Amino acid sequence: MRLLQASLLLVWTSAALWGQTSYGRVTGRITDSTGGLVAGASVRIVQSGTNIATSTTSNEQGVYDLFNLLPGEYLLYVEKEGFRKHQRGPFEVRVGDVVSIDVALEVGAVSETVTVTAEAPLIESSTASLGQVIESKQLHNLPLPGGAATYLMQLSPGVVSLNAPTHGWLPQARDSISNISVSGSRARNSEFQLDGAPNMAQSGNIAFSPPPEMIQEFRVQTAAYDASVGRFTGAYINMVPKSGANEFHGTGWFSHLSRPLMTHPFFVNRQLYDLRTGPVTPEKRNSLWLPTRTNRTRTSFAGPVLIPKLYN
Description:
The protein is an alpha+beta fold.
């Protein structure tokens, strides 16, 4: 029985550790205008896109902590009897971020509101982690050869692909996607996670490469890991899928690739124009470089779930 309890505790602890880096977190200290600590203040944070609210209260040290926040824009509200209501935002919380926002309450009626529109600090001072967040806007606006969102991992300092420059980066090419080196580490020695859960196959390869439309954003963490990660010597790549919103929206994507739009690789040109192997003919070109035509389409649709008389 004790062994079973210990096993369940270990599983629960491991799940909690993985969850710490899957989402964002907002923390800070609440004081009054003189710098005194304010305990028992009501703190509420609301995601702008979904109106999902998370609440807590400040402790005896005036500290509040809001965690497990989905990536997105948020508004922060702080209330305490005898002080004006404080509103902060909108500001952005990204995957794995620990955003520090200290609040100084002003004496007055709760019906009065003090609104602060300044953004959250860009420098994350709560942790020593090094990494970069690839946002949804980058996934939609930057070119993705082959349609694999993980291609943009290379935007992070220290991440180098060991594939050939002409590699197609197809989503199903899991071995090639995982063939990266981080700050000189061995290839295929990075950890991929999807929404905080392990997304690993054998030989250090990613198990599932989600399409760009499915991903809200992902973080490539390259150094100074905390206790929840750091099981590999390379990078820690955590992808967060999109959630629904209050409005219906969708996307459509089409890509065409054929040989007339492509340049000859170096060694193809070397053999093609080598007159010792014969003149340049269509037959010779086709034998050295097979005709290629690839058409890809992707669509996505998202919105709120409506269940009449139950959830609407």
